[in-house]
# Entry
Amino acid sequence: YSSPSIVLASYGNDGSRQILDDFREAYYWLWQNTAEDARVMSWWDYGYQIAGMANRTTLVDNNTWNNSHIALVGKAMSSNESAAYDIMTQLDVDYVLVIFGGVIGYSGDDINKFLWMVRIAEGEHPQDIKESDYFTERGEFRVDAEGSPTLLNCLMYKLSYYRFGELKMDYRSPAGFDRTRNAVIGHKNFDLTYLEEAYTTERWLVRIYRVKKPDEFNRPRIPYTDRLIKTKNFASKKTSKRKRGVIKSRPVVVKGSKSGSK
# Structure
C-alpha cells in the first residue's frame, strides 16, 4: 500500500481494458480549485503525490519518520466527526482526501487500510483510541448493519460512504452495496456537520471534503421576521404644484453677435 499507482487499469468480462484516471483527476482539481496555501489531510501514502501533482501542503507523507504526526492523523480518521474536527482545527486543515474503492471494487482503499490507522493512533493515544472498539463482539471487522457503532460513526467511515447509501449500481445489487467488502453498508442517510463534499471523481475512487471554518458555526441566528429591512414611511417635501424652474445668470443672446460679447 505504500506506493499507490497514479493510473489504474481494469478489465471487463469481455477482456476489454479500461484506464482509471481518478487520482490524476483529483489532484488536478486540487491544483485548480484550492488556495495555494491550502493544507490537505490524507493518509501518508498519498502525501508525495498530492505535493508533487497538486502542489499542496500535506500533513503527513511517505517520509514516515514523524510517527506522532501520523498517529494524530490516524486519530482524526478514527474519531467521530466532532472530535476529528477539533484535531483538524488545531492542525489548520482545509481539505480531507480519502480513497474509496466500494464502487469499482478497488481493494487498496482507505477502509481496507483503516485498521493500521487505528493501531498507529492507539500507540500514541491509548486513552482515546482502542482497536477493539472497531470490531464486533465476535471479533469481526464489518461495515454492514452488524458493524461496531464506533466504526460506523467514525470520520473515515462517513467520508468514504457519504451519499453512498443512495447509490444503486445495477439492478441486482441493493443501494449502498460495497463491491470491495461485498456488503451493504450499515449506516446510510447521514449528514456531515463539520465538513462538506467538495469533489468526488467519476468512479468515486477519490473523495475530497472541505473543512468548515469555526466562524461558520458561530454566526448568530437571525429570526426570519428580523431579516427584512424596516423602513419608515417616506413623505416627499415637494408640493403637488410644481414650480417652474428658473435658470440663474441666464445669458442674453442678441442676434448678430456672440453671447457675452461687448
